[in-house]
Design a protein that fits this description.
The complex is a heterotrimer of chains A (296), B (285) and C (383). With 296 residues, chain A is mainly α. Chain A has eleven helices and two strands; from the N terminus they run H-H-H-H-E-E-H-H-H-H-H-H-H. Chain A has a domain of 206 residues. Helices cover 73% and strands 3% of the residues of chain A. Chain A has a two-stranded antiparallel sheet. In chain A, strand 1 and strand 2 form a beta hairpin. Chain B starts with a helix and ends in a 14-residue tail after the last helix. In chain C, the strands form three sheets. Chain C has a seven-stranded mixed β-sheet with strand order 7-6-8-9-10-14-15, sandwiched between helices. In chain C, strands 2-1-3-4-5 form a five-stranded parallel β-sheet, sandwiched between helices. The longest helix of chain C is centred in the N-terminal third of the chain and has 22 residues. Chain C is elongated, with a radius of gyration of 22 Å. Chains in contact: A-B, A-C, B-C.
């Protein structure tokens, strides 16, 4: 039973990291109906920049974290300005936006490769003090708790922001109907840029937490989470913030439970994607319905 | 240097590149067919894999003649597409893309885990049977087929589904049938290309048709332009040759070349809204 | 529209430049004999981290050789290129090396998948190729022009398992391996065979995929089976995570972790930290081996690149020297066939890997090492 409990903890933990990655992804989709495929590259750069700040600028992680998050947000502004804004009024904006964001992702990854090198690196061992607790054969670490808490705070903060702040309401208005929002005097272009800022800041934050916990950062670390992130936002319903979180945890649990139940891990990813496939066919709106961003 | 020498020299260095351009053009067209009916599939790389493995297994283990193996691969990919197509083609836009992507991932993971596909190391040595003339004959035939298709009732139905699926349905077009048809034709072309590629490279590995390969086909289409079938061919040709072009003009190997690659892709998207084809056709605006 | 015209001009110019660069006739031969060697590694794509240190290792060897050759000796003119971790790019590079640059020998490529394809081109063109990191089966079987200086897991692993069994009395183990990479899969097969040969019980086989960072589900399963040891076939990116997460989950240090070539990198110790202690690693090279050539290499490499070398760097470095040795024995840098014969004849050559020979099947033949991590350092504990 303890093993099973441990597996549940494993699943919830990795799932909340997936969820944090996915909320930024789904936010842009909710507002623009566009997939930003450079999101994973921002995830990578966020982690690497934070590492650089800790290692080369000798900053505390508590300072490096917000700084690198801010920088990731700025990358989001760049993505919007370069890859999406110029294409917004083209009839094929959906396809061309996919490709231009891929182009930007390639440029970002090559920059990461050129600047930080190809090696897998980690935060210095003493960046953050980690306590390991073992209770009745179940292991949990202080870093895991901190990461889940930070992720939860960011998610709750985002939800509150969208619901109650002026800018958040404007974002929801644009998501609902761009033309109406414009008529209401909302500066739609700035709101979209701002959405990219938040989305990428969250993506970068996810990269930092991921790097902190798993101790392995590399220019291609975004690749494997990119596909999982896509799966997560579909599971949760495209554009839904709570859906992305629950979808993340559901995806994390499905990975872990495949191993726990079958005892082997060969088909772990196959099961996860088959489940995704089945859900798409049976409930295309996601597990929790198509709760658009306007309904958070 | 006489002309003959220049030509032989060029072919010696770039012969395989030219073959890859042919294969990648076929793959690009395979997605073009699906796109021409308004359906974004990211499963065509997986169909190429299914074709490659089918043909490779037939020639390696059963000594089936190459041409028969090619046909079998094409039919196999087509059959899988029919079975897959009916349920998934109810989905639209990004949902279809993700469903086909999930299908592709499952195929890739199966290829890693199955004995008969050679697991992670891939299936090797597959006999080297594909020659340049075969690739380009196939490409010419497929191109001709596309040109004919475009002017046929089928092509017209594809176009009307792409423009407005609901309206097409209202006009009495059996949209499910035509969408599945487009999906299946695309899968068959992909299967053929995959089979030819496997018999060109001696090997097929699961890594060759993952997510990035699927996305690459979409890139060929968008860069080349999807208004006409030779758009994707132009896109595939430019992007396949790009690393060699960059090498030729002295862009050093490594991150810089990768970055320039991304930059050129970005420039094409931003400044050539209808892809490379718009350079060759008179524009209306 | 103007923009598209500018763009087409740009395309035209680029294409023109491309052709002119391709078709320039080869310059007249210089006075000092120069051996053209094509060196291709994965500098971008999935295997970029290995390609980077391989290139450094090869670069260092080329610089040393050219400095030592003086005004009259044979120099090496290296052509470095990138296969982008894909067979297609590898093929293009090989064609360019052989038919465009007319190299006398090729070193690389990084990945076995790529080598499976490219080495056939070298074989068909009768240009010797030396793999410095290919460990999959069937590479050197391609033909008599294909060599490698990398010891395969099948050579390294049996020793590791035998010693581990004698030293720690292991009788039941769990295996964890990457099932989607040729290298880690081959390592798993070698481990499994060695374990069965030694009559060690295998409790379970768990897998992971390239790029995974979370191994806790598999390790939790393994923990519940209480093995004597965990046998891991992984590359360094995954290896450090596996080891640290195993210890974090409370798998005690008395459960030994046994790894192969993939663990043999300073990054492993750096990234796994104190969890690396006690890990047993069977490998093809040791950074702490006392052989003077090796000590000089480690020192010079660290001084030049700011990081200590890993096994990939060492094998690439040795590869350049092996090819150079063959060129000298062949007496000419321009005859690939003679260089091939000289390569095949290499016996007991002093190298950073130890006394190096080729087997009759053109595979590497030298002593593997068994290392244990002690206090954050690789220590040789057996051969």
């Amino acid at each position: 039973m303890n093993i099973f409990l441990q597996q549940l903890i494993n699943g919830v933990f990795i799932g909340s990291v997936y969820g944090l990655f996915a909320i930024g992804y789904t936010l842009v989709f909710g507002v623009l109906d566009i997939l930003n495929l450079a999101h994973a590259a921002v995830f990578t750069l966020g982690g690497l920049v934070a590492l650089w700040l800790v290692q080369n600028a000798a900053l505390s992680i508590w300072l490096a974290f917000p700084l690198a998050t801010l920088l990731s947000g700025i990358l989001g502004l760049v993505i919007n300005a370069v890859a999406f804004a110029p294409l917004r009024h083209r009839p094929d904006t959906y396809f061309s936006g996919l490709i231009s964001s891929i182009a930007l992702a390639i440029i970002f990854e090559s920059a990461a490769l050129g600047i930080f090198g190809a090696r897998t690196v980690r935060f210095p061992i003493n960046t953050i003090t980690v306590h390991i607790w073992q209770v009745a054969g179940v292991t949990i670490t202080s870093l895991q708790i901190e990461i889940v808490l930070i992720a939860a705070c960011l998610m709750a903060g985002l939800t509150w922001f969208l619901r109650h702040s002026r800018a958040g309401k404007a974002i929801r208005a644009v998501a609902e109907n761009e033309r109406t929002a414009r008529l209401l005097g909302i500066h739609v272009d700035s709101i979209i840029a701002f959405t990219f800022f938040i989305s990428s800041a969250l993506g970068g934050a996810a990269g930092i937490l991921f790097g902190l916990y798993f101790g392995a950062l590399s220019p291609d670390m975004g690749r494997s989470i990119e596909l999982k992130g896509l799966a997560v936002i579909v599971l949760g319903g495209m554009g839904s913030i709570p859906g992305a979180i629950i979808g993340g945890i559901a995806f994390g649990l499905s990975e872990v439970l495949t191993v726990a139940i079958s005892g082997t891990s060969n088909l772990r990813d196959a099961v996860a994607f088959t489940v995704l496939f089945a859900i798409l066919l049976l409930r295309p709106s996601g597990l929790f319905g198509r709760k658009q961003i306007r309904e958070t | 240097m006489d002309l003959h020498h220049i030509f032989t020299q060029f072919y010696a260095v770039y012969g395989s590149l030219i073959n890859f351009i042919g294969i990648n053009s076929l793959l690009a067209i395979s997605l073009y067919v699906t796109l021409s009916a308004g359906q974004l599939s990211l499963g065509n790389a997986a169909f190429a894999g299914i074709g490659g493995y089918t043909a490779g297994i037939l020639t390696m283990y059963l000594n089936v003649p190459y041409m028969v193996a090619l046909c079998a691969a094409t039919l196999m990919s087509g059959a899988v597409a029919v079975v897959l197509g009916f349920p998934v083609l109810r989905l639209r836009g990004v949902f279809l893309a993700i469903a086909t992507l999930a299908f592709g991932e499952v195929v890739r993971i199966l290829a890693i885990n199955l004995q008969i596909t050679g697991g992670a190391e891939g299936l090797t040595p597959i006999p080297n049977k594909t020659q340049a003339w075969m690739i380009f004959t196939a490409l010419a035939l497929v191109g001709y087929f596309m040109a004919v298709l475009r002017r046929s009732r089928i092509g017209w139905s594809f176009a009307s589904i792409r423009e407005d699926e609901t309206a097409a349905k209202a006009m009495g077009i059996n949209t499910t049938w035509y969408k599945t048809l487009a999906f299946t034709i695309g899968a068959m072309i992909a299967g053929l290309a995959g089979a030819m590629s496997a018999h060109l490279n001696y090997i097929i590995t699961p890594g060759e048709f993952g997510f990035s390969a699927a996305v690459q086909l979409l890139i060929y289409n968008i860069v080349g332009g999807t208004r006409i079938w030779y758009g994707p061919v132009l896109g595939a040709a430019l992007l396949t040759a790009l690393p060699e072009i960059l090498r030729g003009i002295g862009v050093s190997a490594g991150p810089v070349r990768m970055g320039v690659n991304g930059f050129i892709l970005l420039m094409v998207i931003l400044f050539l809204p209808n892809g490379l084809v718009s350079l060759f056709s008179r524009r209306k605006d | 529209m103007k923009r598209s015209q500018i763009f087409s001009m740009y395309i035209l110019i680029v294409t023109a430049l491309f052709f002119s660069a391709t078709l320039t006739p080869a310059p007249a031969k210089a006075a000092a004999p120069e051996a053209k060697i094509g060196i291709v590694f994965s500098m971008t794509g999935g295997a970029a981290s290995y390609g980077a240190t391989q290139k450094n290792g090869a670069q260092l060897a080329v610089d040393e050789i050219n400095a030592a050759a003086g005004a009259t000796g044979i120099h090496i003119k290296p052509f470095f290129d990138d296969d982008a971790s894909t067979p297609q790019q590898g093929i293009n590079v090989f064609k360019k090396f052989i038919n465009g640059d007319h190299v006398s020998a090729i070193i690389g490529p990084t990945l076995s998948d790529t080598a499976h394809v490219t080495d056939r081109i070298a074989q068909a063109s009768s240009v010797p190729v030396l793999g410095v990191s290919n460990t999959a089966q069937g590479i050197t079987e391609i033909g008599n022009y294909v060599f490698r200086d990398s010891l395969t897991e099948a050579v390294v692993v049996p020793n590791t398992i035998r010693t581990a069994k004698e030293k720690f009395g292991i009788s039941k183990v769990s295996i964890l391996y990457g099932n989607d990479g040729a290298f880690t899969k081959a390592g798993y097969e070698a481990f499994k065979k060695a374990l069965l040969d030694q009559k060690v019980t295998i409790l379970s086989e768990q897998t992971f995929a390239k790029g995974d960072r979370d191994f806790s589900p598999q390790l939790t399963e393994i923990k519940s089976q209480s093995p004597d040891a965990i046998v891991v076939s992984a590359l360094v990116e995954e290896a450090s995570g596996i080891v640290s997460q195993a210890r974090q989950l409370g798998i005690p240090a008395s459960v030994h972790i046994i790894g192969g070539n993939g663990f043999n990198s300073p990054s492993f110790i750096k990234n796994a930290g104190s969890a690396a202690d006690g890990v047993l690693i069977g490998a093809a090279w040791s950074s702490t081996a006392s052989n003077p050539l090796n000590q000089k290499f480690v020192k010079d490499y660290t001084a030049k690149f700011g990081n200590p070398p890993d096994q990939f760097a060492a094998q690439a470095y040795a590869g350049v020297y092996i090819v150079y040795d063959a060129i000298q024995k062949a007496g000419t840098p321009f005859a690939p066939a003679k260089i091939r014969d000289a390569l095949a004849g290499i016996k007991n050559m002093d190298s950073v890997l130890g006394k190096f020979s080729f087997t009759s099947g053109r595979d590497a033949d030298y002593k593997a090492v068994l290392q244990e991590v002690k206090n954050g350092k690789f220590v040789v504990v057996g051969e």
